């Protein structure tokens, strides 16, 4: 027994041997440091989580109540609650806003269509915002412009500000849409922008309108100032008195090219939520406007415009070299353009 105790003591003595004690001390220091580190970390984590909690709560408080329970789930990506930097949506902060873009070509009735839309108390359609080159020069300036429009920070006479339920603009195919279509479609799909295609079936009539309009603008202003849209039958008469000559040699290829461009646009944007509207259908049947209002989920209203159609009646009266044009298109797939009105 005494021996055992002796050995035990000896052992402990050996452990306490001064030679080995630095190792033990180091171990103790390391363990202490680890415990301290863990403690500091745990405090940090606690502070971070206690900081983010109120933020998260704020987020819930400001955003959640705006979602309308009556909206079907499919529509949620297309209902937005913008927070403009330049003003406060005030009592309309929780009215959902739809984002749209009218994709069209010049002289296809988009000006008229836009005045109809803007006669709705809750629609802001801001015109051809990409007619300025510096806004469409590269994709980053395009996206920046889009952000401002859809954040309701874009000011035009059409802005309804607080109580807009649909906000958009019109975009001509020759204003950067086709060049940058991939990034634009991606933006539309991520931000939930709906596309309204507005095309004209009768491309020959469109051609007459283009030629007459550019004649009035560049060659001879019929009544002192250039007018691309008119508000009285007399003005329309003045403008339609000019009869353009259509190049019948290039007519077929010109029409084909217009058709191909429109089809390409439809193809590029087919993955976006979209509706196709034809100018001729709008003229014939105003209830097409109901479809558009439904598409934008707007409260239904009667829409009005003061614009007057410029070229009325048979095309034969509006084209100088009608016989040439008639002969060129007779028997082709464009023959119907000769006789269809509007
Ligand atoms: C895009 O265009 C804008 C305006 O024209 C210009 O200020 C900017 O530097 C351009 N950005 C790029 C990436 O080219
Ligand atoms: C439409 O505008 C009116 C008047 O500004 C507003 O009272 C109404 O709430 C708006 N409707 C929608 C759906 O935003
Ligand atoms: C021509 O312009 C004048 C003044 O700008 C206007 O009073 C008149 O109605 C216009 N006439 C037509 C036919 O456009
Ligand atoms: C008509 O089009 C043809 C083919 O594109 C072209 O060679 C000709 O110069 C054009 N004529 C006029 C008057 O513009
Ligand atoms: C007008 O359009 C509506 C809706 O698009 C359609 O239901 C109706 O049949 C059309 N009416 C005529 C006369 O074409
Ligand atoms: C086009 O020309 C044909 C004869 O070549 C004629 O029968 C037809 O009435 C003309 N069409 C129009 C719309 O003038």
Automatic annotation (TrEMBL):
The keyword Transmembrane applies. Gene3D superfamilies: P-loop containing nucleotide triphosphate hydrolases (3.40.50.300). Keywords: Membrane, Transmembrane, Transmembrane helix. InterPro entries: Nod_factor_sulfotransferase (IPR052796), P-loop_NTPase (IPR027417). The keyword Oxidoreductase does not apply. SUPFAM superfamilies: P-loop containing nucleoside triphosphate hydrolases (SSF52540). The chain crosses the membrane at residues 23-45. PANTHER family: PROTEIN, PUTATIVE, EXPRESSED-RELATED, SULFOTRANSFERASE. This is Sulfotransferase. It comes from Ilex paraguariensis (yerba mate).
